[in-house]
Amino acid sequence: MSGVVAVIDYGMGNLHSVASALAHAGADEVLVTHDAELIHKADRVVFPGVGAIRDCMAEIRRLRCDQLLADALADRHKPVLAICVGMQALMSHSQENGGVPCLDIIPGEVRYFGNPLVDADGARLKVPHMGWNEVRQVRAHPLWQGIPDMTRFYFVHSYYVDAVDRGLVAGSVQYGVSADAALARDNLFAVQFHPEKSHTAGLRLLRNFLEWNGQC
Amino acid sequence: MGLAKRIIPCLDVENGRVVKGVNFVDIRDAGDPVEIAIRYNEQGADEITFLDITASHEGRDTTVHTVEKIAEEVFIPLTVGGGIRSLQDIRTMLNAGADKVSINTAAIHNPELVREAAGRFGSQCIVVAIDAKRVADVDGRPRWEIFTHGGRKPTGIDAVAWAVRMAELGAGEILLTSMDRDGTKNGFELGVTRAITDAVEIPVIASGGVGNLDHLVDGILLGGADAVLAASIFHFGEFTVPEAKAYMAARGIEVRLQVT
Q1: Residue A151: how many CB atoms within 10 A of its CB?
Q2: What is the mean pLDDT of residues A189-195?
Q3: C-alpha distances in Å from residue A197, one per residue of A46, A119, A188, B32, B78
């Protein structure tokens, strides 16, 4: 039983895809909300995000979603999944929009992919990093269960996460640089890719999240 | 190994029905965009593009409803284009479940729309569609111009310069259609594909003219495209998405092979 899943809505874009993918993956009930009471009572929390980091951070703070997230993370029995800009917002600072302080829940920087960006053979790489890339499962985690190492997930981003504590890295992706594709700490799992847009593998990861007890 | 080149089936939809239909052997309703999108999703398409050619306002409400239904069933990226003229149109489609919108004529009339849309919704969901046609060479070098109205109306705008400008304004991706090749099955216009992929940092989707699997390969290897879009070769059952991917993979192109 997944119980109630709260998708934190801080007004930045469409959360329909995340909500319908969670429902498809077997969630008992999905709430898209920024209501403190509902998020507090939810069994699981999803922290999504799309768009530019400065606007996201402004809305996260204005709607006090930073406190809601901190409360959820403090409850070690409540699994939390951060997606894309939601993951980037957890870091200390982002280079996007001329430099934006973030939540500093996980120490680390969100860096620009660089221009020009080239692969190991010197071939030019486009930015944004858009499409299906292979995720190396750097360490075992309940959310990787049933998903083979190097499975492709759908990415779309121009900035990437570089966590200070490399022990938190659960998945990495190569795109000119080695970028953190997944971070895990206690009851938190954060992914740069979009599980809700990653077909079978993405739905499996969401199902794993719905079955996860928050321990690892 | 790294980022895969994408294969994108495209559905032309009018008043909620796929124009010309499709010819899958086991499909119940060949005109239902939801059923067709589900089928391409199952085949391992990397994205789906939905081009709305509905003229009437009432018909566009049907489109929104169709996008909502596809988004409930299909968990790969969905791009919606056709008739996107304002920030409100973009918001409506994103709220319906589209992941990206494709802006074409409206960007020509008002390039600032691209900047405003990228600022509001993020570059990742703003695709600029370019319909290019070869015109008289300049100093012995080929030149392509932007055309509107299905390739009938010239704008005088240089296609390569336009792509660069759209990227500067915040477009996240270019959907490039050769109006010389669209519907011909003679393959992509590789000259303009190469010129634009070399000129911009953002990904380019090649479109227009695919008649066989070698055309897809050429679009990637010779045109330098990041993704290839095709309609009829998939709709009429000539090739499936897995066949196209296997063919491309055998020629050294990195593709996402189906994981089930």
Answers
A1: 21
A2: 98
A3: 15, 25, 20, 22, 9
Total count of domains within chain B: 1
CB contact under 8 A, B119 and A52: yes
> Domain holding B185: CATH number?
3.20.20.70
Do the chains contact at A156 and B172, CB–CB below 8 Å?
Answer: yes
Q: Which of A52, A126, A152 has its CB closest to that of B202?
A: A126
Q: Is residue B259 part of a domain?
A: no
- Chain B residues in contact with A13 by the CB 8 A cut-off are 94, 121-122, 125
Task: Indicate the average pLDDT of chain B.
Answer: 91
Q: Looking at the structure, give the CATH architecture of the domain made up of residues A4-211.
A: 3-Layer(aba) Sandwich (3.40)
Question: A51 vs B5, which has greater pLDDT?
Answer: B5
B162 within some domain: yes
Which range marks the domain in which residue B53 is found?
6-250
Spans of all domains in chain A = 4-211
Contact B259 A152 (CB under 8 A): yes
Contacts of B119 in chain A (CB under 8 A): 52
Q: What is the pLDDT of residues B65-102, one digit of tens each?
A: 999 999 999 999 999 999 899 999 999 999 888 999 99
Contact A42/A7 with Cβ under 8 angstroms? no
